[in-house]
Amino acid sequence: MGLPASVSLDRTLAALADPNRRRVVDLLSRQPMRAGELAQATGLSPQAMSRHLRVLRSSELIEESRSGSGSADSVDARVRLYVLRSTPMNELKTWLEQTEALWSAQLLSFKAHLEESR
């Protein structure tokens, strides 16, 4: 069973608060990558990348996969690919849409009030 929506959303937002982690999410939105590839693409040390990946895994934004896509190293258990999970981002998108709808309704109501006051 998953976490309550608010806890999951809090973890997602906390993980995305760091620009390096947002960059990792951006890179993984294009394709699965190894930790070394991510470190190189972001200019971070392997140790720093490891810490960021740990936060992203614990927030469930990414997951680690040990199976490749039919390449020679797909049978090598040492090869770890990181992939983006869609569920936390979908939850964030839903929350943003609900928030936008709330504020849109509030602003329309405020506008109507101002127009009535004229």
Can you walk through the features of this model?
The chain is mainly alpha-helical. The chain has a domain at 5-85: Arc Repressor Mutant, subunit A. 64% of the residues lie in helices and 8% in strands. The chain has 5 helices and 3 strands, in the order H-H-E-H-H-E-E-H. The chain has a 3-stranded antiparallel beta sheet with strand order 1-3-2. The longest helix is centred in the C-terminal third of the chain and has 32 residues, at 86-117. The radius of gyration is 20 Å and the shape is elongated. The model has no long low-confidence stretch (mean pLDDT 87).
Supply database-style keywords.
5 helices; Arc Repressor Mutant, subunit A; 3 strands
**CATH fold type of the domain at 5-85:** Arc Repressor Mutant, subunit A
Strand content: 5-15%
SSE order, as H and E?
Answer: HHEHHEEH
Helix/strand class: mainly alpha
Topology summary:
Blueprint: H1 5-16, H2 19-28, E1 33-34, H3 35-42, H4 46-58, E2 62-65, E3 81-84, H5 86-117
Antiparallel strand pairs: 1-3, 2-3
